[in-house]
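wait is this the right file?? whatever heres the structure
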């Protein structure tokens, strides 16, 4: 028995014009991101050959009007193929970028905390990371402070940042301990 006749409220409704327009604009923005994407990253995406060719042509176009027309063409090719796999791959790229940014911010925060708090912060870090080179950390902190007070380029601070970033790569750095108020 046909369920649509038994339950008319569950009939398939046609997609509204507004929804079709939103979908088209989303695919168009995806096409714009693909055009701006580096060739190395684009090679990792599941794109058809004709889409790749159209993207390369769009990258070569310098006229704004012609480039916009080519962008529309790339979006049209994406709509014909299923863009869902491309969306998922782009989401994976975005996720990796967020993870990298998070690592960078964590390392920067620890570097700044170590430069301000000194030995107490080193002790807190080393309790979380017992295998770390405490002598090198303390040496880099001293040197970075000397450079900052002498208005020299922050070479030691950069090395300290790289060291912290390497530590974070294997296992995320712990949260920075909250400053305790005296009293």
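ok assuming it is, sequence goes like this
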């Amino acid at each position: 028995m046909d369920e649509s006749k038994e339950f008319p409220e569950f009939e398939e409704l046609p997609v509204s014009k507004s929804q079709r327009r939103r979908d088209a604009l989303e695919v168009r923005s995806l096409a714009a991101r693909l055009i701006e994407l580096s060739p190395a990253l684009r090679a990792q995406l599941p794109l058809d050959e004709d889409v790749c060719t159209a993207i390369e042509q769009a990258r070569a176009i310098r006229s704004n009007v012609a480039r916009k027309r080519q962008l529309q063409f790339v979006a049209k090719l994406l709509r014909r193929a299923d863009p869902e796999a491309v969306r998922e791959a782009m989401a994976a790229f975005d996720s990796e970028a967020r993870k990298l940014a998070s690592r960078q911010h964590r390392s920067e925060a620890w570097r700044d905390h170590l430069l301000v708090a000194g030995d107490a912060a080193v002790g807190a870090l080393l309790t979380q990371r017992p295998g770390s080179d405490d002598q090198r950390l303390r040496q880099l902190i001293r040197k970075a402070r000397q450079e900052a007070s002498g208005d020299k380029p922050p070479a030691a601070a950069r090395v300290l940042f790289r060291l912290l970033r390497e530590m974070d790569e294997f296992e995320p750095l712990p949260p920075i301990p909250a400053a305790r108020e005296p009293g």
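The chain is about 75% helix and 0% strand. so i think its the right one actually
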